[in-house]
Write a structure and sequence with these properties.
The chain has 200 residues and is of the alpha+beta class. The protein has a single domain, classed as 3-Layer(aba) Sandwich (Glutaredoxin), CATH 3.40.30.10. The strands form two sheets. It has a seven-stranded mixed β-sheet with strand order 2-1-5-4-3-7-8, with helices on one face. It has a two-stranded antiparallel ribbon with strand order 6-9. A hairpin with a 5-residue loop joins strand 7 and strand 8.
């Protein structure tokens, strides 16, 4: 195989994961209700950086980041810098990760989590709008409403908490670069985790 054909093959493989929203495109607006009964739209946060984090407390990949305190620390760090962090729960009724508002509030308290809000999406409407594939699946949106990153939280697709210390965190990289006025080095990666448990 020639070098050019090999390169084309590699590029084709790298784009197999279909994204609903290409990096640089306007992130679609949505409306959802959080675990405290408050309504949120993406458009109300125009002018701020926004993180969307698909969550499922029963997923071991998600547990890796919450039980270690990593996700909660990230939430506190970035919301402390003015970033809006929305955890979104798209698990269908009867499926792993589906919770009542009270259950989610208790979980957030137990984990010392600090998202701006946890939006319950049991119909999967928001999840399908963004084609969220895994828990976690991270999306970062800039103040102009454009998607600047989507994919994995880091480059260690395991359930081992010890891997967090040596992981390259794509979420941190995207926000740090963008807030410094620099291009985001990696705009998309393949997310890892449990599949989002959408309603059939």
């Amino acid at each position: 195989m020639s070098h050019r054909r090999l390169l084309s093959f590699v590029l084709a493989l790298s784009t197999l994961t279909a994204f609903a929203i290409p990096p640089g495109a306007l992130a679609p607006d949505f409306k959802g209700t959080d675990s405290k009964g408050n309504s949120h739209t993406l458009s109300q946060y125009r002018g701020k950086y926004v993180v969307l984090e698909w969550a499922n407390k029963g997923c071991p990949y998600e547990q890796k980041h919450y039980l270690s305190g990593n996700m909660s620390a990230l939430q506190r760090e970035w919301t402390g810098k003015g970033v809006v962090w929305l955890s979104i729960l798209s698990s269908a009724p009867g499926e792993q990760g589906n919770v009542t508002p009270a259950e989610e509030n208790e979980y957030l308290k137990t984990m010392k989590a600090a998202p701006t809000a946890a939006i319950l999406d049991p119909t999967g409407t928001i999840g399908r709008l963004y084609q969220a594939k895994t828990t976690p699946h991270i999306f970062v949106i800039d103040p102009a409403g454009k998607l600047i990153y989507q994919g994995a939280i880091d480059d260690k697709p395991t359930t081992d908490q010890a891997d967090i210390k040596t992981a390259h965190n794509y979420l941190n990289e995207a926000l740090t670069s963008a807030m410094a006025g620099k291009p985001v080095p990696t705009a998309s990666t393949r997310p890892y985790g449990c599949s989002v448990k959408y309603v059939n």
